[in-house]
Write a structure and sequence with these properties.
alpha+beta; Structural Genomics Hypothetical 15.5 Kd Protein In mrcA-pckA Intergenic Region, Chain A; Alpha-Beta Plaits; 9-stranded mixed sheet; 4-stranded antiparallel sheet; elongated
Length: 243
């Protein structure tokens, strides 16, 4: 059976489909010892695929983890500055990678897997997967700014973003700070911090509490668990059929 090259790379657990597409267009992928740069190229089980000098292993067992990321870890597979990386927290020999990213100083829920198809599904904006964050911001937002953000949204780096839900959890008048729960479909880098920056407030602490229906119940910082089959199927069910 023939399948698209980027899908095969993603399904092998090497990387996400989006990253696989980048590698193909940059000439980093060989099929039967020939460089392939055309997206959508079809391959079969008989074809040898080499990515960045590594021969792909087909039929790799899929693994799925939910991690409570602590501060002080980066969401990457390596780091030239020798900072700690989140894959070090999970006891597996399988090459897994994070679905999306959380900043170095941000804590909370992140999924790691070698299932490129699921990773692509969860990160693609058309599927509308909601992420819920708990942000401590300072100074306290003006009420009119909060209502503008809630009702109209805000433009960040030339693109409009509107929370699916947002509410004030508590205020600390002495410290001129407040805790705001904000739910987003967006997955852009630093998006939560940049949203509040547009209103003159700084995010001084940030935690992702939920990803779709998943939460951090029963986990301490640095802890993780495997997702069960029911949860994985439910994540796959989040895919919206294109018209």
């Amino acid at each position: 059976m023939e399948e698209r090259l980027q899908k095969v790379i993603a399904n092998s657990g090497y990387t996400s489909r989006r990253k696989a597409e980048e590698l193909i267009t940059k000439g980093k992928v060989l099929v039967n010892n020939k460089v392939v740069k055309e997206l959508g190229t079809k391959v079969t089980d008989a074809d040898e695929i080499i990515v960045n000098g590594v021969t792909l292993e087909r039929e790799v067992k899929k693994e799925y983890y939910l991690l409570y990321k602590p501060a002080g870890y980066i969401c990457s597979l390596s780091d030239e500055h020798n900072r700690k990386i989140i894959t070090e927290l999970i006891d597996t020999k399988t090459r897994i990678y994070p679905v999306g990213r959380l900043d170095y100083d941000t804590t909370g829920l992140i999924i790691l897997t070698n299932d490129g198809e699921l990773s692509n599904l969860l990160m693609h904006p058309t599927n509308g997967v909601e992420k819920v964050y708990r942000a401590t911001v300072s100074p306290i937002m003006k009420i009119e700014d909060f209502l503008t953000l809630k009702n109209k949204g805000v433009t960040v780096n030339g693109r409009k973003v509107k929370p699916s839900r947002i509410k004030i959890k508590s205020k600390n008048e002495n410290k001129n700070s407040e805790i705001i729960e904000i739910s987003l479909i967006e997955g852009r880098n630093h998006i939560v911090k940049n949203i509040f920056k547009e209103f003159g407030s700084e995010v001084i602490k940030l935690k992702r509490e939920r990803y779709a229906f998943l939460n951090l119940d029963g986990l301490a910082e640095g802890g993780y668990r495997e997702l069960n089959l029911k949860e994985v199927k439910k994540l796959y069910s989040l895919k919206k059929n294109s018209k």
